[in-house]
Amino acid sequence: MITSAPVGTWVWEPAARGIAGTAAGVWHQLAGRDLVAAGGSATLRVSDAAGPRDVRVELSGLGLGTPPWAPDAPVVRAVERADALEGDLVAVLRVDCPGTWLEPGRSHRAEKLFAVQVEVWGGALLVVTLETYSDAWLTVDTRGREQPGVHALNAPRLAAALDGISAFLGTPPTPGDENRYAIPDETGFADPRVEGPAYDDAWGTFERLDRTRLLDSRLPRCDEEYEQVTEAPVRYAPVRRDGVTLGYVWAATDDSAAGYVPRTAAGDAAFDAGAVWLSDLRRARRRGLAPLCALELLLRLPARARAGIVSGAGSGTAPSLEDLEERSGRY
Known about the structure:
- The protein has eight helices and 14 strands.
- The protein is of the alpha+beta class.
- β11 (244-252) and β12 (258-262) form a beta hairpin.
- It starts with 7 loop residues before the first strand and ends with a helix.
């Protein structure tokens, strides 16, 4: 399953070095194990150490270049300009990394399989954090199902990458704390079968809340919207942009609810598009349309740059909203 919150984190505190070179080195260690792929983007924030609200630089959507981390890449040029600033500063470079996880006979791309964050404090203290947003490295997935084939294909790749990053940085990692999903360790993750997972279905318990929070943060408050949960089967249609499925709009077959389910593997674009389609559903609700009629209306709307298009191809009926959520979170 792909998650909206990290499944695990690892932190290194190596000797101070350049922020772009550090991020690039970590990225290449992941790429060398086929864990990250071309694409992705970075954000850069530079602020005064004594006053974090005194922001000197704040940039987002910085491309990694072709090939990644080339000298003329937007992210590299942005860091070079930030390096020229004077003062006691804190610089934070964060890179969202698309990548590929494996299951027997198939591979799957997620637009944020990993995130790499490099912080430099006053040019002296360097902190590197690696986050993963997949459970492919676990013996038991985040819904409580054993996955020996998936674990065997992916866990060794992560272990090798962690070793490579530690060698590059010259220091071992400090695994992050136990979280709702898993227990990170120096080679990947502890086996939850030994003591049992913290939750029988952590993904089902928490991911819906995380998704709702991320969608709501992109929308104004509103009291006029359809119910977001239902016990009935749901009719759904995929939201697509540039050939990529971003999520699914849906309506309950008994007209009790309607909404949008993001495809988590599509990354932030899934939530950005979802905000647009949820706004359309709110307008349909204000017009007094029943949920199924609202779904038909969205199927007739033209494509938009940010939101994509609701496609009749690939539409269908799921036996439950949970079934559709499972589909949107796994692949």
